[in-house]
Structure formats: structure tokens, C-alpha cells
Design goal:
Chain A is built from 13 helices and 15 strands. Chain A has about 450 residues and is an alpha/beta fold. Chain A has two domains: about 120 residues, Alpha-Beta Complex (Aspartate Aminotransferase, domain 1), CATH 3.90.1150; about 260 residues, Type I PLP-dependent aspartate aminotransferase-like (Major domain) (Aspartate Aminotransferase, domain 2), CATH 3.40.640. In chain A, the strands form four sheets. In chain A, strands 2-8-7-6-5-3-4 form a seven-stranded mixed beta sheet, sandwiched between helices. In chain A, a hairpin with a 5-residue loop joins strand 9 and strand 10. With about 500 residues, chain B is an alpha/beta fold. In chain B, the strands form three sheets. Chain B has a seven-stranded mixed beta sheet, with helices on both faces. A three-stranded antiparallel beta sheet of chain B has the order 10-12-11, with helices on one face. Chain B has three domains: about 55 residues, no CATH class; about 260 residues, Type I PLP-dependent aspartate aminotransferase-like (Major domain) (Aspartate Aminotransferase, domain 2, 3-Layer(aba) Sandwich); about 120 residues, Aspartate Aminotransferase, domain 1 (Alpha-Beta Complex), CATH 3.90.1150.10. The longest helix of chain B has 20 residues. Chain C has about 130 residues and is of the alpha+beta class. In chain C, strands 1-2-3-9-8-5 form a six-stranded antiparallel beta sheet. Chain C has a three-stranded antiparallel beta sheet with strand order 4-6-7. The model of chain C has no long low-confidence stretch (mean pLDDT about 90). Classes of the chains: A alpha/beta (about 450), B alpha/beta (about 500), C alpha+beta (about 130). Chains in contact: A-B, A-C, B-C. Chains A and B meet through helix 1, helix 2, helix 3, helix 4 and helix 5 of A and helix 1, helix 2, helix 3, helix 4 and helix 5 of B.
């Protein structure tokens, strides 16, 4: 087998040294009744060529050739081959967690740069070395707020991604955490009156997403003001990182949970991604996840090491701030490389293209009879439109034109029947947008 | 020093500052195709309240600088591609490159999780097939591929236990955790809402079954066990343990981190495990990438299936679908379906081996025992029990000249290796935990043995050399105390008081 | 080495009476076990503590230790110098690096604690165990 670097004679030599007659002797500590005599029933073995064929066949059974208008927490953005050039270097791909700092300076410096970039993007003072994804990072941010305030009630915007809210609920159920949802207004933004009415001295935090699930930007400074008056923390979850190229960062937030998938990480059917928690320096000891810190060696040379490790599971055990162990280092590296490539100008330009194309798509769709924009709050690259019939029916027709249409919202928000969430990024061409509008018009022209 | 060290020697590596230190206005590394729609004025469209003035600090560098920067950084890292990682409990095996290729295929890497079902069959088939393979390897009955990492798999497992016990009328209060357990175990139990009670290992490094029998009662929800244990020793009385637990309605959770000793040889489902997780970035070869991503699928017995997180991959009328209509489910543990990219790699690994996966396990155990035999006289072996895929020594002999496991580990770096796991498990003071994996040739194992023998000699005759190691790296031992007292966690521009060096 | 007018606990805290206040810190043995202290987590002024209750932690790079109240009382003062100079716990654990001062609830609890001689014997035993 090509992954095993031993010849039969070497195996024999090693068994001789050990003093075992056969390899089976080395498994004699497993009771006989628990040991398998027959091989497992598994497909394979496959050579490299067979593996390629197998996975190419699977890849042919998906959406290649289709145009997609899906967003909702996973975004199709331009990527660069340079990212893979770096990621596929064996010293990055196949290296371990940088606990032994002297031989992991590459990883550690890259993490330090990632932490810096995340602070620059979010307007916060410190950021960690990445977390599993936006949904779990958002949940961890809530738990962090709970520890900081020693309060147990959290006010969560209903316009936070439905799956993020489900994840939070799963975790909250077993901890002493009460979640209350606050609705949205016709602008698509958080209902500030409802927020003021619900916030009490027992509220640990207010949690919003911006741009929210409807693509609408939340008025973070006003939300933070209301929260601060009750001595509650403000948590902002960001699923679309490219928005930070045009949209003011949530500097008034106490904790930001940012999903970095938009930065050079492919959609990959849901993962792996990389998220980050960014916050104020004074909260750093309650922040979960790994941290790389700058320091020196005995000769005064600058170097980096994992630090504040006492928050983590391998030391605190049952008193850890989180049970997180692995992070998403390779994905975070992809985001780091990509953001360095894009740079200040590139990110700004990309964000502006998103704004322009979404604006264009919205205006094209609004021209269609019976189609209207639902929320009047400011949006980035996603928006909600209402159609004269069920989005599901429209989408079934669009598929014939190889278009994956808007995400129907009715199942998550019963009051938003016949509403769909449309996402347009810099990767969507004008021709594709026009084709969408045309196809919708054609579909609507045919009575159901 | 040159004569003794065979595997490594000094070589020139490039210096490199922080990317921010190279930044200058006007440079760019990536160009976008021109927009084909009318431009908009962001300030005007978003308004002063929402528009961003400047993305301060984000670097401006060229493509070549990015390539050089990260390439240079990469040369400062050790990696599996360079040599052995004898890290106990980490299973640092070869990351097959074909896995990287298939995970990146257009049609797999490009898929959005909310695509209509008819356009995701290829992805769902991968999930379904991987599930079947993992169930066969572990001898369990149902699975979820959602958890993002081992720690999340553990949490999912405990939440499943809680949900099941709740459905039986009482979620109970405590989880038993061996003192040899990985730190994620107790941390997870607390997040699942349980109290942790530690149980001691016996003189053979295994669970003290008599003590267990005494403390098991109806307040205990579960026992979290790693098998083989973190000492690399198989829990021989595991079936008995399971019986004792089940007699009291207690669930047996297995941390599958050490599955590399069992794949193809023994199935945890057959020794009474109710729920377990696997670390795909350990036994199943997905790359560590400097610290992640991983994946932590959870496998269960039938009685826990109704509680699995949603969505679950199901087969309906010859088609695959994601089923979220499961009323007893514990809910979601993360958005979307799971770390699909990691799952693809794990499936590619399993398919490459097929039923021959047993050979990998045999080689892993062979390597560990070979190293144990060759180092037995040189380092203290605290437990005489047979080792499986990893062996734990202690530094008690070397301590006589003041040399500890951390020092030996640092000196191993000069010999061209990554250190083994130091100071874990906690029940062995001064532990050296060594797991070579099946990816190591006899040559690499011999070089390792050679290095460890040489260091033992140095510990006896030149302890200072060992205590001040490593000597050949770009930076020496770093001031971790300073880093923790006054943390510098980001670069700041030179104008601020705390600028980088 | 260990001040004779202090009282000591098995968890390596010391108590020094100052009128109706009890100053509390960790012993030299404890700081030595921990290594270089990097951070101290303290309770808020006004917190009411029961003897044996954990009121904070002392952190080094590799370990975190809980600190337990040797006696019951209400936190009257916390040492303001430790945030910027946690290393003073290593340098002067019995003097400048006191952690908190409690308004004593009852002086009867002091009788339960060890005096300097008993504490020295206690740690001598511990050291014998460790090197066994």
C-alpha cells in the first residue's frame, strides 16, 4: 500500500527485535472475543486514478454549469490560485498546532497577522486565532458575555441567521441561559423600541447580525447605546466579511463574531470555514480560542508563541472558557493570504462591485410586475423581494434555465410568504442578472 | 555535535518581517475584472451612518511579495512532509495529496449548502458513503457528520446522552472522567451541564473497575473513556465496565482519539460503547494545517439515534436527502451540514485502503512497540502493560541530573524531529508520550531511537546542553512569561507606543 | 521563613490579622510551585465569602490555581498593584503581594488554621511525598 513505507522483510526484522512471532501477538491485549478475524466490509482499495474518477463522478452530480443567487451565510466570491499555492506547501498543510514555538514560527506569525487583519477589519482591539465557524463563534461570544457580566439573559435579533439561532439554542438549553427574541421593523432592522422594552438589569447581551439575514445593515451604535444603558454587552455577528470593505465596522460592539469564509475560502457545501472572535483588550482573558502573542527569545530576537493558554482546555480542564481544541488554522491562513493579496484597495473595490451589482439586480427585479422590495433599510449584497407567487414554484422553473433562484424565506419566517432572499456578488455577471430577471418575468407571465 | 545528529543540520533560512511592515500605498496583489454594471457611490448609497471611510491598516503589497512572504514563513515550520511527529495521541500520519486534489474539484468545492436537492446528490453520496464506512469501522449503528472537531463531537455525544436520559425521566448529574483523560473531556462535560467526577487509574494504567463499581449509581449519566487509554494501553476489562454501567442505566462514551490502534482490528460497538466520536484529522489522515480544520463525527447505537443533530443524511426512494424533521433531535450543533471539505478527504483516505485499512493499524502498533523495545532500557517505563499504538515513558531517570521531559523534547528538535507529547497524561509525572503512526519507515524510526538514546547520554554527561536546547533553530526558547504578562496580540503602526520590533 | 504571627491553610494561603481586617495571600511554597505568575483574578469589593470558598485564581504560564478563603468575611480591599506587577507574588508573597483584605466575620475560624510550625511540617511532608 503506497502510504506504508515498509517492506515485508523490514516488518519481520522489527518483529524480531520486539521478540514477537507475528503481528497478531502485538494485539493480544485485546480480548479474543473483541478482535475481528475477517476483513471489514469497505469499498476499495482504490488507486489514485480510481479515486479521481470516483470523486469526479460525484462532482458531476452537483450544480456545475448553474448560476446561483444564494447567499444566506455562505458567499461565492472570487478566489486566487495564490492561496492554494501557499496552503499546499507541506510546511503549512502538514504541520501541527504550534505548541513548540521554535519550529512553528511560520504558523505563529501567520496567525499573528490574521489576528491583526481581523482587528483592522472589525475595528476591535484583539482577535483570536480562529474558531470553527460563524454559528459556533456567535454562540461562544454569547457564552463569553455571560461570563463577563455574570448575567443569564440574552436578547437575540430574530433577523439573526436561523441556523445560528438554532445552534445557540442547542448550547443554551444545557447552560443557565435564557434567550429572548426581538423582532424587526419594516426597515428590516432590529425593533429598537422592542429592545428598549425588553432589556433589563439581568440582560447579559444584545446579539445582532449585520448585514443581517435579510441583507440589511443594523444601526449598531444605537443598539450599543441602549445596551450600555442597561450595562449589557453588544455582540455583532458578521456572516459576510466582504461587507467590511464598504460598511463601517461595528467598533461600538463589545464582541464581534466574524465568519471569514468570504475571504478566499470556497463554499465547499458548508465547510470547513474559519470564524473569529474580536473584542476589547479588557475582555481578552474571557475570550475562547487560541491566541498568538509576540515575544522575544533570550537573544532578543522577535518571535511568536501561543499565549494565555491557561484559558484553554488542556490546562483548565473543567474550568476552561470553552472546550475548543482545534481551530481552523489552515482556513484562517487562506483568509490571511487572500486579504493580503486583496489589500485595502482590492477589498474596497470588491465591496463596491458587490454593492453595484446588488443594486443593479434589485432595480431589474423591481421592474417586474408584482415584484417588490420588502425592507427599506440599507443593504450590502443581499436583499429580500416579494413575488406574486411562491418562490418555490418560481425556482422550479428557473432551474430549467440553469438558474438557482432566491432562497425562499417562508419556512423560517412565516410572515414572509412569497419572499425570497437574493444574493449578488462580484462573481455574478450582468448577463446572469439580466437572465434572472428575464426568466422570472417569463415564469410569472404563465398563469399557475 | 555534528557526528551524533544524523537527521538534521543547519541551513540558511530567509528572514521575513510582518506583512504590514512591507505595505506601501498603491501596491496591490490582486486585480478584479472590471464591473459590468453601472458603478455606485457607496457613501451615497449607504449613507454617512453606514459607509466606511477607510480600511485602516490593511496591507498593500504585490503578488510576488505575498508569495515570498508566506513561502519564507513556511520554511520556518516543521511538518509531516519533512519527518516524524512522535506526538502521542495526535496520530500525525501522512496527509495523502490526492485528498487535497479531490476536495478541490469543481462541483465539490464550489457547492452551496442550500442548493436544491437535485443538485447536491453528489455531495450527499459522499456523506452517505463516508457514514457507512465509519459505521463499519466502528461497529456502531447510526452517525452524524456535523461536528466541526473532536471537542464538538464530544459535546454532541454528551448532549445525546443527556437527551436520551431525559427521555427516560432523569438526565442525571455527573459524568465520570478518568484522570488520564484529554482536557477536552472534562471541559466538555461542564458545557453539557454535568458535574465532573474524576476516577483514578490503577497500577496497570487502566480503569480501576472495583472502584468504578463502587461509585456508579443513578446520579451518573456517563463514563467517558478513551480506548486504548492515553497511556496507549487497551482497557482489557472494557466489556465488564460496559456491563457495570449499563446495569445502572449509565452510558458509555468513548473518545475515539486512539482509533489508530483499532481500525480493522476491533470495533468499539462490540465492546459496549453507546456513543463515540472520531477525529478525522487523526486516524483518518485529514491535514492538521497548523491547528485545524478537523472534523469530529459521532457514532451511536440505535437507542440514541432519534436524538442525533439535524440534519441527517437519509435515503428516500433511491435519492439522498437531508432530513431535518426529527422531533427528538438535540438540534443543530453548527450551521450547514459539517466540514464537508474535511469529510471528502477522510472518505478518499478510506477508499484508498478499503478493507486493507487493517494493515495501517498493524504498522502503527508495530512501530510503537519497536520504539518501546529499543528505548525501554534507556527511559523509565512507568507501566509494564503492553503498548498499542503509543508508548509513555517518564523522565525520572534523567531527572537525576536535572533534565526533564521538556528539555529532552527541546533537544530532540536539534536532532531534526518534532518533540513527542510532553507532560501528558497528567498521571505520569514528567511524561514522554510517543506515537509514531504507520507512516514512519523503519529508517525514520531508527533515526528517532538513535536520537533519543543520544539525548539520554547527553542528559547524563552534558545536562546543560539539553537544558538549554534547542540550539539550532531560528529562535531559541521564547519568553512565554512575558508574552502572558503583557500580551501583544496584534501589530500596530509605528506611531503607537507598542509597535512591533 | 514563615511568619509566626500568620495562620496557614492546607491550600497554601496565609492570613494576617490587622485589627478587624484579615489580609490574605498565598505562601512562598505556593508561588514556587506555580512558577512565574502572569495574572491574578480577584473578586469584587463587597463580595461575601465563606471559609473554604474559592475567591479567585493565580495564573502562571502553565497552570492556574484557585485561591480559597481561609476565613469568612466580606471583601474590603483588593491589592491594586497586582494587575501591573503580578510578579510581586513571586518576589514578596508574604508581604507586599497580599491579595485581599476581608472584614472578618468571626475570629473563631482562625483556630482551625495551622500556625507557622504546623505549616512548615505540613510542607516538609509534602516534599517528602513528592520525591518518594
Amino acid at each position: 500500500m503506497r502510504y506504508l513505507p515498509k517492506s515485508p522483510s523490514e516488518r519481520r526484522q522489527m518483529l524480531d527485535v520486539i521478540g514477537a512471532r507475528s503481528i497478531d501477538k502485538l494485539f493480544s491485549s485485546i480480548p479474543a472475543g473483541l478482535r475481528r478475524e475477517t476483513p471489514l466490509d469497505l469499498p476499495g482499495p482504490m488507486s489514485e486514478a480510481e479515486l479521481i474518477r470516483y470523486f469526479r463522478e460525484r462532482a458531476a452530480e452537483t450544480s456545475v454549469g448553474y448560476t446561483s443567487f444564494l447567499g444566506a451565510g455562505v458567499y461565492n466570491h472570487l478566489r486566487s490560485v495564490v492561496t492554494d499555492t501557499i496552503l499546499l506547501r507541506g510546511e503549512f498543510l502538514t504541520s501541527y498546532t504550534p505548541y513548540q514555538a521554535e519550529i512553528s514560527q511560520g504558523t505563529l506569525q501567520a496567525i499573528f497577522e490574521f489576528q491583526t487583519l481581523m482587528c483592522q477589519l472589525t475595528g476591535q482591539e484583539v482577535a483570536n486565532a480562529s474558531m470553527w465557524d460563524g454559528s459556533t463563534a456567535t454562540t461562544e461570544a454569547v457564552l463569553m458575555a455571560e461570563r463577563l457580566t455574570r448575567r443569564t439573559r440574552v436578547l437575540v435579533a430574530r433577523s439573526l441567521h436561523p441556523e445560528y439561532r438554532q445552534v445557540l439554542a442547542t448550547y443554551a438549553r444545557n447552560l443557565d441561559l435564557q434567550i429572548e427574541e426581538i423582532g424587526f421593523t419594516s426597515s428590516g432592522q432590529l425593533d429598537l423600541q422592542a429592545l428598549s422594552g425588553s432589556i433589563t438589569g439581568e440582560t447579559a447581551a444584545v446579539l445582532v447580525q449585520s448585514p443581517n439575514f435579510f441583507g440589511v445593515l443594523e444601526p449598531v451604535p444605537r443598539i450599543a447605546q441602549i445596551a450600555r444603558a442597561a450595562e449589557a454587552l453588544t455582540i455583532v455577528s458578521i456572516a459576510e466579511g466582504v461587507s467590511l470593505g464598504s460598511v463601517r465596522p461595528p467598533a461600538e460592539a463589545d464582541i464581534v463574531a466574524l465568519e471569514a469564509q468570504s475571504f478566499g475560502i470556497p463554499p465547499s457545501f458548508g465547510g470547513p470555514y474559519a470564524a473569529v472572535i474580536a473584542t476589547r483588550e479588557k475582555y481578552v482573558r474571557q475570550m475562547p480560542g487560541r491566541l498568538a502573542g509576540q515575544t522575544t527569545d533570550a537573544q532578543g530576537r522577535r518571535g511568536f508563541c501561543l499565549t494565555l493558554a491557561t484559558r484553554e482546555q488542556h490546562i483548565r480542564r473543567e474550568k476552561a472558557t470553552s472546550n475548543i481544541c482545534t481551530n481552523q488554522a489552515l482556513c484562517a491562513l487562506a483568509a490571511t493570504v487572500y486579504l493580503c493579496l486583496l489589500g485595502k484597495q482590492g477589498l474596497r473595490e470588491m465591496a463596491e462591485q458587490n454593492l453595484a451589482k446588488a443594486h443593479f439586480a434589485l432595480s431589474e427585479l423591481e421592474k417586474l410586475p408584482g415584484v417588490r422590495r420588502v425592507f427599506d433599510g440599507p443593504v450590502f449584497n443581499e436583499f429580500v423581494v416579494q413575488f406574486p407567487r411562491a418562490v418555490r414554484l418560481i425556482n422550479a422553473q428557473l432551474l430549467r434555465d440553469k438558474i438557482i433562484g432566491p432562497l425562499p424565506l417562508g419556512s423560517h419566517y412565516p410572515e414572509l410568504t412569497k419572499c425570497g432572499l437574493v444574493c449578488v456578488t462580484e462573481t455574478t455577471s450582468r448577463e446572469e442578472i439580466e437572465r434572472l430577471a428575464y426568466a422570472v418575468r417569463e415564469t410569472l407571465a404563465v398563469p399557475v | 555535535m555534528v557526528d551524533r545528529i544524523k537527521k538534521a543540520s543547519r541551513n540558511t533560512s530567509q528572514n521575513e518581517g510582518l506583512i504590514f511592515e512591507k505595505s506601501a500605498p498603491g501596491k496591490r496583489g490582486f486585480e478584479l475584472p472590471p464591473a459590468d454594471v453601472p458603478a455606485v457611490d457607496a457613501q451615497g448609497l449607504l449613507g454617512a451612518d453606514y459607509a466606511r471611510a477607510d480600511i485602516e491598516g490593511l496591507p498593500e503589497v504585490s503578488e510576488i511579495e505575498v508569495i515570498r512572504h508566506f513561502t519564507r514563513l513556511s520554511t520556518w515550520n516543521y511538518a509531516i512532509d519533512l519527518g516524524m511527529y512522535p506526538l502521542g495521541s495526535c496520530t500525525m500520519k501522512y496527509n495523502p495529496r490526492i485528498n487535497e486534489h479531490v476536495a478541490r474539484l469543481e462541483g465539490l468545492a464550489t457547492e452551496h449548502p442550500y442548493q436544491p436537492q437535485e443538485l447536491t446528490q453528489g455531495c450527499l453520496k459522499i456523506l452517505f458513503t463516508l457514514q457507512k464506512c465509519l459505521l463499519e469501522i466502528t461497529g456502531m449503528e447510526a452517525a452524524t457528520l456535523q461536528p466541526a472537531a473532536g471537542a464538538q463531537g464530544e459535546l454532541t455525544g454528551l448532549l445525546l446522552i443527556r437527551a436520551y436520559l431525559e427521555s427516560q425521566g432523569n438526565p442525571r448529574k455527573k459524568v465520570l472522567v478518568p484522570d488520564s483523560a484529554h482536557g477536552t473531556n472534562p471541559a466538555t462535560a461542564v458545557i453539557a451541564g454535568y458535574e465532573v467526577e474524576n476516577i483514578r487509574s490503577d497500577a496497570r494504567g487502566q480503569i480501576d473497575v472495583e472502584q468504578l463499581a463502587k461509585i456508579v449509581n443513578e446520579d451518573v449519566a456517563a463514563l467517558m473513556v478513551t480506548n486504548p487509554s492515553t497511556l496507549g494501553i487497551f482497557e482489557q476489562r472494557i466489556a465488564e465496565v460496559a456491563e457495570i454501567l449499563h446495569a445502572h442505566g449509565v452510558q458509555l462514551y468513548m473518545d475515539g482519539a486512539n482509533m489508530n490502534a483499532l481500525a480493522g482490528i476491533a470495533q468499539p460497538g462490540r465492546f459496549g460503547v453507546d456513543v463515540m466520536h472520531l477525529n478525522l484529522h487523526k486516524t483518518f489522515s485529514t491535514p492538521h494545517g497548523g491547528g485545524g480544520p478537523g472534523a469530529g463525527p459521532v457514532l451511536v447505537k440505535k437507542h440514541l439515534e432519534p436524538f442525533l443533530p439535524v440534519p441527517v443524511v437519509v435515503e428516500k426512494n433511491g435519492r439522498l436527502a437531508l432530513d431535518a424533521a426529527r422531533p427528538q433531535s438535540i438540534g443543530r450543533v453548527r450551521a450547514f451540514g459539517g466540514n464537508f471539505g474535511v469529510l471528502v478527504r477522510a472518505l478518499a483516505y478510506i477508499l484508498a485502503y478499503g478493507p486493507g485499512i487493517r494493515q495501517a493499524t498493524e504498522d502503527a502498533v508495530l512501530n510503537a512497540n519497536y520504539i518501546r523495545k529499543q528505548l525501554e532500557g534507556v527511559y523509565d517505563l512507568p507501566y509494564a502493560s503492553p503498548s498499542m499504538h503509543e508508548v509513555v515513558f517518564s523522565d525520572s531517570r534523567q531527572k537525576k541530573t536535572g533534565v526533564g521531559t521538556m528539555d529532552i523534547a527541546k533537544r530532540l528538535i536539534d536532532y531534526g524531529f518534532h518533540p513527542y507529547t510532553t507532560a501528558f497524561p497528567l498521571i505520569v509525572p514528567g511524561a514522554l508520550m510517543i506515537e509514531p503512526t504507520e507512516s514512519e519507515s523503519k529508517e525514520e524510526c531508527d533515526l528517532f531511537i538513535d536520537a533519543m538514546r543520544s539525548i539520554a547520554e547527553e542528559a547524563a554527561t552534558q545536562p546543560e546542553l539539553v537544558k538549554t536546547a534547542p540550539h539550532s533553530t531560528r529562535v531559541g526558547r521564547l519568553d512565554e512569561v512575558g508574552a502572558a504578562r503583557k500580551p501583544i496580540l496584534r501589530w500596530k503602526p509605528k506611531s503607537s507606543a507598542e509597535s512591533a520590533d | 521563613m514563615y511568619p509566626t504571627d500568620y495562620r496557614y491553610t492546607k491550600e497554601h494561603e496565609w492570613v494576617r490579622i490587622e485589627g478587624d481586617l484579615a489580609a490574605i495571600g498565598i505562601t512562598d511554597y505556593a508561588q514556587h510551585e506555580l512558577g512565574d505568575v502572569v495574572y491574578v483574578e480577584m473578586p469584587r469589593v463587597g463580595t461575601k465569602l465563606k471559609a473554604g470558598e474559592s475567591f479567585g485564581t493565580v495564573e502562571s504560564v502553565k497552570a492556574v490555581s484557585d485561591i480559597y478563603a481561609p476565613v469568612s468575611g466580606e471583601v474590603a480591599e483588593i491589592n491594586p498593584t497586582l494587575a501591573d506587577a503580578p510578579e510581586s507574588i513571586n518576589k514578596d508573597p508574604h508581604g507586599k503581594a497580599w491579595l485581599i483584605k476581608l472584614k472578618l466575620a468571626s475570629s473563631a475560624e482562625l483556630a482551625q488554621l495551622m500556625d507557622a510550625k504546623a505549616y512548615e511540617a505540613y510542607i516538609a511532608d509534602k516534599e517528602k511525598e513528592a520525591s518518594a
